[in-house]
Amino acid sequence: MLDAAHSRPPVATEGIAAETQRLGFKRASHPQTEALLRTLAASKPGGTLLELGTGTGMGTAWLLDGMDASARLLTLDQNEETVAIARKYLGADTRVKFLLVDVAEFVQAQPASSFDLIFADCYPGKFYLLDEALALLKKGGIYVVDDMRPAPEGEMKSAR
Question: Where would one find coiled-coil regions in this protein (predicted)?
C-alpha cells in the first residue's frame, strides 16, 4: 500500500504541509492514514462524506483525492486559523464545504443515517459522542478514527 504509485500525495498537500509546520500545528494526519482515506473515499462513489476536525486540511486533501466527481465532503472545525489554510488550498473544489461550527453540537443535531463515510479526527466522535457520531452513518458506511493517543489532560478538558 505504501509504494510510490499508491502513496503519491495530492498536489495541495505540499503547501498545506508547509503552512502546517509554520503554524506549529501538530495534529495533522499521518501518511498511512492519508493513503487509507483516499482509498476509502474512492469506495463510496457519489457518497456523502463527513470530516470531524478539518485541522489544516491534510486529511481533507486526501479524501478529496479519492472522491469521484459526484461525491460531496462536509468538513467541520471551530479553529478559524487552521481552517483558513485548508480553504486556501482546497476551497476551489466544489465537492467540499467547510463549516466553522462546534463539532459536538453539529453531531448532536444531525439526523441519523446521513453519511457514507465519517473521518473522526477531533475529540467529538473520537473521545466522546461516539454513539451519536456512529448513528450518522448510513447502512454500509465506514467510520475512521485517527490518532487515538491520549491527549494532555488540560487539552481534553478544554475541547469539551
Answer: none
